[in-house]
Write a structure and sequence with these properties.
The chain has about 150 residues and is of the alpha+beta class. Helices cover about 40% and strands about 20% of the residues.
């Protein structure tokens, strides 16, 4: 990694990991300070660069730890394909480390695509790991269709 890349990552990291302060001044004696505690202020030109770098680091870490799970990503939408057991370990591990990278998956928006009778096994899997996602036989995703069979 080049020194310019390291400086860029460090700069974005420091900007993203601390609260931004908005100061509203009325008269000299009265000012209002508002802390933005959700990452970066809206409109900041470094938002997408920072988010992309942090997400890329998360993806790399997960891919290094889980070589038995296929992990394709499109922007900030990730998928995991493999045995239910390996996918379960993957999701649990992602939940553990994602706060470090300021990424938070929303389980209620997640879908487990299972084939045929595997939906029953999927229900057991969901209960075992206490997951809050839907189980379906097929689903339209990114302009394509994921299904158990045609």
């Amino acid at each position: 990694m080049s020194s310019k890349t390291c400086v860029t990552i460090r700069s974005v990291f420091l900007r993203y990991m601390h609260h931004d302060i908005l100061v509203m001044r009325g008269n000299i004696k009265k000012s209002v300070f508002i802390l933005s505690k959700e990452g970066v202020v809206q409109g900041d030109p470094l938002v997408m660069v920072g988010y992309g770098l942090l997400l890329l680091l998360l993806i790399k870490k997960l891919k290094d730890e889980f070589n038995s799970v296929d992990i394709p990503w499109y922007a900030d939408d990730g998928s995991a394909a493999g045995s239910l057991e390996n996918v379960g370990y993957f999701i649990k591990r992602q939940e553990e480390i994602e706060p470090v990278y300021r990424y938070f998956q929303e389980e209620r928006n997640s879908i487990l695509v299972a084939k045929g009778r595997d939906t029953v096994i999927g229900d057991i899997f969901k209960e075992k790991y206490n997951f809050n996602f839907q189980i379906k036989n097929g689903y339209h995703c990114l302009g394509g269709h994921i299904a158990s069979g045609i």
